[in-house]
Structures are given as structure tokens and as C-alpha cells.
Amino acid sequence: MKRRSWWLTAVGVLFTAAMLFPVYWMINVSLTQTSNMRKSPPNLIPVDATLQGYSAVIHQQLPYLGTSLLVALGTVVVTLALAAPAGYSLAKLRPKGGGALNFVLLIAQMIPAIVMAMGFYTIYIKLGIVDSVWGLIIADSTIAVPFGVLIFTAFMSRIPEELLQAARIDGAGTMRTFRSVVMPVSRNAVVTVSLFAFLWAWSDFLFANTLDNGGGLQPITLGIYAYIGNNNQQWNAIMATAVVASVPAAVLLVLAQRYVAAGVTAGAVKD
Amino acid sequence: MTTDRSRARSAGRQRDGAARTAPSGARHARARWRAQAAAWGFLAPVVLYLAAFYAYPLYRNIDLSIRSYTLASFITGDAPFAGFANYISIFHSSTFAPALINTTIFVFVSIAFQFAIGLALAVFFYRSFPLSGTLRALFLIPWLLPLLVSASTWSWMLNSDSGIVNSFLQAVGAAPIDWLTSPRWSLVAVLIANIWIGIPFNLVIMYSGLQSIPADIFEAASIDGANGWQRFWRITFPLLRPVSAITLLLGFIYTLKVFDIIWIMTRGGPATASTTLAIWSYQLGFGSLLPDFSSAAAVGNVLIIIAVIFALVYIRARNRLETT
After folding, report:
1. Mutation target among B59, B121, B145 for the A interface, most CBs of A within 10 A
2. First and final C-alpha spacing in chain A
3. Alpha-carbon distance B280 to B284, whole Å?
4. Each residue of B96-151: pLDDT tens digit?
5. Residues of A in contact with B171 (CB under 8 A)
6. In terms of CATH, what superfamily is A61-268?
7. Within a domain: residue B117?
8. Domain residue limits at B257
9. Alpha-carbon distance A238 to nearest alpha carbon in chain B (angstroms)
10. C-alpha to C-alpha distance for B102 and B310, rounded to whole angstroms
11. pTM score
């Protein structure tokens, strides 16, 4: 029995290695000398590795990374501010017509981003806020808000009614109950929603490229895109930027793995 | 019938204590109204948000599609009404048929592979073994990476001259393939990348679906002498049907929207070889110096209609799941 399960581990490691090969390859290429880039066959491991690519990142991409951080954090704030109260209401306050709103939120998630981008573009041109960080934050938040409401509703409907009753008996109003009772016990939902809002905004390329590709503050996805377009030869710099752009995903996976799994599942399976 | 009786009863009660219940009824109604006001107060931000940032852009998109907009229209503010002319012209465009066919192939092939591989891996990881949790977590990485990162990595791996994939093909004696630049292979190339990205999502959901099956069912089946293969096809698979339906439909809706991967890897090319509806819409609206927003919006709306049809199927499946 024991030997058999080790055999399974070996197969599992093999599968995982195959699956993660592109990630490994990205790191390997990011460390390759420019002169070895077109070598055939390519070096399978980074022999005589170079940090050329990474120094290019530090010299050219830091502002992009800063913008991405700003946009992602802004998106998290907007998403939480909108989704948490809505989740509380849908889960506990029984609004008339709440079912219809849930339906609208579900449909909203199905609208292709390209359609949203076009609509935002025409509106932003009129308002003169194309190429602004604020405009991008609002557009990026549309990816996360419906999901956020869904998660908050699911988590908050599990808060025991007695807890809210106790707060009411102590004289707390709806607002006070929300602030001092509901939010503190919904920490897991806050983490899950923040995590996904952050990752989606960080990874967004379509909104950035349509709504923010001329301004002074551009996110990292556009940094990589400009690289691909301009200097096709510098693949170590492109891949180094890609590695750096992947850091938040890696950090979040290590620190908050169970929230990631919870978020993926909650979107699809209702319990 | 029952409502009639209860109405009669409450009418009787009202008659009994009309003087007493009237004010308390009013107070009750007021309290209920206040509760509703509070409930909608908490919803107000999201409702306003949906109106401003979903409904209005959507409305703008429809408006775009029934007028003929040019870049000048944005400045002058007027665009002549065109009715369905934009829709008719996209249906007659030589790009329409390839885009629709590519979208269909892209969506169905992606989902078939993602789902089959995800399910197989979920079944594999379900037999928990040392390190299975860690390996399962590592499997999430491709899904969490920015799409642009994955797409650029695959572009370089599939590069005709210097890509690792062609080096491998040559090492085993096969002919190298122009993955991204030949019309026969570019759709395959973006499919490979998209399937890779979608496997983790399917794995996680199917794994949680497996976990919700009570373990004693499997035990009973193996006592009855069912082997692994029979257990999977007779028990696991049927019991996973509801979760599978939702996974497939979500996969459908997500895959229909895919843009980043194809745009980075092939830009829909060569020619229309990997152009999907989403890519075509972007090409029309933002891909050239002479944007044709109206046609782009029309293509986008066709995409929405397809998505909404499947969304309704999804919601029905979900509701049926909740009632059973």
C-alpha cells in the first residue's frame, strides 16, 4: 500500500512538471544570454546565466509595475466598497427584487470584455478621461464586482441570524451591525474577493490597451506588449518582465492558496 | 384555496380588534418599509454602478452598432442612423464565416480537452498520496498567471526557428512546424495555449465535485466487486453530472470571450486563420488606424447574443440543480 502511494507521487510529480514546463521555460529564457537566444537546440538549463534581462526590467519597467500596483489596489478598494454592502443586503436584508438583481449580476459576468471596452472607450472619449488611471480602475472593477457580490452573498448568508439579532438587541442599527458585526466575521470573503480583484486588474490587458495606451501611466501588461512589438530580439528582457509580472500570482498562491481554491469553486458550485 | 381561507381568517381577526390592529398594522407596514429602504440603501451603490458602468456602455454599444460612426463622429458628436446596415454588412463580410467557424472550433475543442484533462487529473489527485495537496496547488499556477505572460511564453516556445517545441520535434526526427505563421497551424497553436491555461480551473472544480460524493458509495461499490474503470463510469461520472454541466457552461462563456491569448500569439492571423469573433471585433474597432466602431460594435453584439443564449441555459441548469 505504502509503496503504491509513493508510485502515485512519482506520477503526480511528472504530471506537475509537464504542466509547469512553460513556467520553467519562461524563467530559463529570462536568464539566457542574448547571444544564446537563437541557439539550436536551446540550452535546457540556464548555463552561463545572465541577469541582463532583469536589469532591463529594473531600468525600463519599474514605472509600469508601479502603475499596475496602483490600478490593482484601486480596483480592490472599489470592488470591496461596492460588493460587500450589496452582499450583506442580498444575504440578510431580503430586498424585494433581490432575485432580479442576482440575475442581472449573472448576466453581467457574461458580457465579453471587448464589448465593454468599446462602450467605455466611447464614453471616456466624451468625458475626456481616456488614458487616466481612474478610468482604468473603473473599467477593471467591472471584471470583479459581480463576482465579489456573489462571494459576499454566499459567505454572509452563512452568518448565524442570532449574531445579528444580538447586535440589534444591543441597539445597533443596520449600518452599525454591518460595520461592527458582519464585516469582521466576513474576513475570509474579504480576502478572497480582494485577491481575485487584485489578480484580474493586475493581469488585465484589453482594457489597458484600449483605454490607457497613450497616457504617461501604463500598466505592466502594456510594458510587455510594447516590448514584444518593438524589439523582437530581446526575449530575455521580455521573459524577465513576464517573470516579474507573475510574482503577485506566485506570492498569492503561496500565502493564500485556500482562498484561491475557495474562490474558484464558489464561482461555480453552490453549497 | 388555502389563501382564501387565510384571508377569511385574517379578515375575521381584523374585525375582532379593528381599533387595536389598525395602528399597529400601520406601524408594522412602516417598519417593513424601513427595512426595505435599508436593504436597498445597501444595494444602491451597486445598482448605480451597474447602471453607469454596465448598462450605459452596453447601451452605447448598441447605439454604435445602429449608426455609422467614424472617428470624426466622436468630435462632431453626430453619426447618421444606419439601422441594421452594419449587421447586414458584417454578415456579408468575407471574415464572418471564418470567424464564426474559428470561434466554434476554438470554444468546443478548448472545452473538450480542458474538461477531459481536468477531470482525469481530478480523479488522479482524489486518491490522496504524499504531496498530492502541494502538487494540486502548483497546478493552479498557469491559471493565475497574467494571460499576457502565458501568451508571450507560448509564442516564444512555439517560435518557428528558436522555439523549444520545434527543437523537440527535430530531436525526435519530426519536421518543424510554423506554429504561429502558417494558416494550417495557427489555430492549433492558440488552442494549445488556451487548453493549458484552462486545465487548472476544470481540475479544481471537478476535484471539489468529487469530494462532495460520499466516500461510502465507492466503498460499497468495491465491496460489490466493481473495478476502478466500472466505478468511474457507473458511479463517479453520473454523480458528477451536475457539476460537469456547470463547469462546461462556465467554460463556454469564458472561452467565448478569450481575446488576450490569440491577440498576443497570432493577432488572428495569418489572414483570418485564427480570427475569432472577439478578435474580429477588436480588429475592426482598435486594430487599424481607420477604426470602424460601428461594425466592431455589431460583431460584439452578435457575441453577446451567443453568450446570453448559453447564459440562460446555464441559469436554468443551475436552478434545476438548486431545486433537486
Report:
1. B145
2. 34
3. 6
4. 999 999 999 999 999 999 999 999 999 999 887 888 888 888 888 888 899 999 99
5. 41
6. MetI-like (1.10.3720.10)
7. yes
8. 89-323
9. 8
10. 18
11. 0.85
